[in-house]
Specification:
elongated, Alpha-Beta Plaits, 13 helices
Length: 389
Amino acid sequence: MRPTLPIGVREWWRSEFDYRWMPAFLERRNLIGLIKWSVAGWCATFGLYGALLQFSAHGPNTVWQRIILAVLALSAFYAAVRWPTVAWPTERRSLVFVGWAEFALIIGILGGADATNSPLAGSGLFIVLGIYVTLLHSARVVVAHLACALTTITVATTHTLLAQPHTDLPLLAARLVILVGLITLIPAILHIGLQLLKDDAQGSDRDPLTDLLNRRGLNTDAVRMLDHARDPETVVVTCLIDLDGFKALNDRNGHAAGDHALRSVGARLAEAIPRSGLVARLGGDEFAAMAATPAHNVDNLVASIHNAVHCSHDPVPVTASTGVWIRNGPLPVDDTAAALAGELHRADLAMYEAKNAGGNQLVQHACHAPQVGVRKRAYDNVTPIAHFK
């Protein structure tokens, strides 16, 4: 019979770890800089380790070994300089960095095995690398890292025992137990804890019915988005969408039909905005959408958001009153939390105008008219009412 993993381990192994979540979490708490400097410190430490081995009487034996170790040390110093000065890496670049770090550690530790009395020298760097992998990558990447670390330590230990047959075995074994324990237990425990933390954090920021952001999640993510929307050419679009006659829909068709309508509308709104945009369910039948977009795209974006609500193929089709606040250029204040409240309030006023006009309407306000034909755009199933201030 084929062996199977325990249920908890199997779920952990198959779980997906959202790479974007942790950088966003760290950025919200202003910790990105600290992490980048910590990684830079790790790179500098490894570079120094490789450089010092070059001067050991028992270091690399051949010219090629010395050249490879020197190249790795130089690349580590280069990475130490680059990490604090460049943007946070994409998932692909992060995996490339992990692959380089694993390879560099393997070569550095095995290349310096003759210069050390035990495999402990340099192996401790696997602990810090393991923490990095645990913070940002999936269980499979963590396991691959542990396999590399344990294999390297095993080979280095074997080499030490063959080269130095009179090694104090109990002392060596005690050191190995501590090292292997730190290398394996820290990533495993930390990764499980991060999964729980991520689930709790996402749960507190998400609407359980639609899996969109809730009001708290929108406030958190929108502040960050507005902080980056400082380009004078960027237009910030804020929409408040209120479903028409939703209470009557619930009374007439039941709450199950109402929940289905909310989930369907939420899913279509999420598809209608750019990946950098935000969609939230604020409660009841009210949704919000925000996006920073080039001015020439405002027309299409507003149309996509409003038209995403209605679908004739739904079991119970719905329409919405949509209020839009369009801001050309940067926010006029430094307090982005206060600015967000102002953007939502202006979109809310526009939404109530649409509601009072009979529903299934789109009302737009702007701080000044964008350089696109928003006022003349024809929308599906809606007569736009546009006002500009």
